[in-house]
């Protein structure tokens, strides 16, 4: 099992390295980032200062090595301030291991650089302020999908080809066909505007809200309902279909028929024998959907005004704030890789045959 986990971690690191490389190459093809930082009022002297500070005056290969060095926990930095380094005194912390000539070897947190538009605000701080809201939204949506989707899938499989099964199939097919941004607009208009007096829900709003005087911050859980439901519609439909098909396949197995012949009750049969084996494909699907929710929440957060990482990405795209876009995409990719590794390990634990493939 340890070797299996280490192999998955190795594949994950290679994938992450590929993602970092692709992100860097994509954004180096864009116009001069120094001009993006300064806007339309730049001068030649200001451009030269910014390019030197951020290493934009170096060849692409050197900039790539700088980028990898910034992201690496173990990194090398020049003591000569004429060269690019982010280790400005008192701004970012790092633990020095040793010095070789004019180069410091330090241990630090990954550095995602600074926002172009937020007056030098660290990207890690921006992500740290918005990512928890996105995680809350994604966890709420996937929990809803797992709970309702699992129940609907079990009911659909148990009453196969009956009217309730057909109704559930129609609803799940409709749920998979609706884009999230379209569902968000419809739900916001119906439940947040048209039926607001009945539901008490708002068209827009985030988890934390500041009062009218700007003094107090309160948690508004009701603002989570609509975006969580909208974000959970498609995975709910997928979980319903997967649970139904997987359970139908398991229920045809010989040991299930034997248990039925011995007079085992329906609930005990499902709980002790059928569900565990039927859950493997569902767990795999849930992992992919949960990771993709972190990226797919972009439009949902923007439409509902949910102050998460997705809305921050939209704002950064509008202002061409490249460090925030690059950092957010990298963090989402890292979470995607970690979640998939975790699910592969769980899948291997549930089915030991997987570890031998």
Description:
By secondary structure, this protein is mostly helical. The chain has 2 domains: 106 residues, no CATH class; 234 residues, MetI-like (MetI-like fold, Orthogonal Bundle). Helices cover 68% and strands 6% of the residues. The chain contains 13 helices and 5 strands. Strand 4 and strand 5 form a beta hairpin. The longest helix has 39 residues. The two termini are 13 Å apart. The relative contact order is 0.12.
Write the layout of secondary structure elements.
Elements lengths: L1 H27 L4 H6 L5 H11 L5 H12 L2 E5 L16 E6 L2 E5 L15 H36 L4 H15 L2 H15 L1 H4 L8 E3 L6 E3 L2 H30 L2 H8 L4 H39 L4 H11 L2 H29 L7
Antiparallel strand pairs: 1-3, 2-3, 4-5
Structure summary:
The chain has 13 helices and five strands.
Provide the descriptors you would attach to this structure in a database record.
357 residues, 2 domains, MetI-like fold, 13 helices, mainly alpha, 3-stranded antiparallel beta sheet, globular, two-stranded antiparallel ribbon
- Strand arrangement in the largest pleated sheet: 1-3-2
* Gross geometry: globular
**CATH homologous superfamily placement of the largest domain:** MetI-like
The count of β-strands is: 5
Number of helices: 13
Q: What is the third-level CATH name, the topology of the largest domain?
A: MetI-like fold
Our Rg estimate from Cα atoms comes to 25 Å
Gap between N and C termini = 13 Å
What order do the helices and strands follow? HHHHEEEHHHHEEHHHHH
Helical content (DSSP H or I, runs of 4+):
55-70%
How much of the sequence is in beta strands?
5-15%
Total of domains: 2
């Amino acid at each position: 099992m340890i070797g299996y986990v280490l192999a998955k971690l190795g594949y994950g690191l290679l994938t992450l390295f590929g993602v970092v490389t692709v992100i860097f190459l994509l954004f180096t093809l864009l116009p001069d980032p120094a001009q993006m930082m300064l806007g339309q009022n730049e001068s030649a002297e200001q451009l030269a200062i910014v390019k030197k500070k951020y290493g934009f005056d170096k060849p692409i290969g050197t900039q790539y090595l700088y980028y990898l060095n910034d992201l690496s926990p173990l990194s090398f930095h020049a003591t000569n301030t004429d060269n690019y380094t982010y280790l400005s005194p008192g701004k970012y912390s790092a633990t020095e291991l040793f010095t070789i000539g004019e180069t410091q070897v330090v241990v630090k947190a990954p550095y995602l650089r600074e926002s172009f538009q937020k007056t030098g605000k660290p990207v890690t701080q921006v992500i740290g302020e918005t990512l928890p809201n996105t995680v809350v939204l994604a966890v709420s949506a996937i929990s809803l999908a797992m709970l309702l989707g699992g129940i609907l899938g079990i009911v659909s499989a148990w009453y196969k080809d009956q009217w309730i099964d057909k109704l559930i199939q129609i609803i799940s097919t409709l749920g998979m066909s609706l884009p999230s941004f379209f569902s968000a607009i419809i739900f916001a208009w119906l439940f947040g505007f048209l039926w607001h007096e009945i539901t008490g829900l708002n068209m827009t709003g985030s988890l934390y809200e500041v009062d009218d005087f700007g003094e107090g911050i309160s948690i508004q859980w009701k603002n989570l309902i609509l975006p969580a439901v909208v974000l959970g519609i498609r995975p709910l439909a997928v979980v319903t279909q997967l649970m139904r098909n997987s359970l139908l396949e398991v229920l045809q197995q010989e040991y299930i028929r034997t248990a039925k012949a011995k007079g085992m009750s329906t609930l005990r049969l499902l709980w002790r024998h059928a569900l565990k084996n039927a859950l493997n494909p569902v767990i795999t699907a849930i992992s992919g959907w949960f990771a993709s929710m972190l990226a797919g929440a972009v439009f949902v957060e923007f439409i509902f005004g949910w102050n998460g990482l997705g809305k921050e990405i939209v704002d950064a795209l509008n202002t061409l704030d490249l460090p925030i876009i690059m950092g957010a995409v990298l963090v989402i990719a890292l979470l995607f890789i970690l979640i998939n590794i975790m699910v592969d390990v769980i899948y291997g634990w549930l089915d030991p045959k997987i570890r031998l493939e």
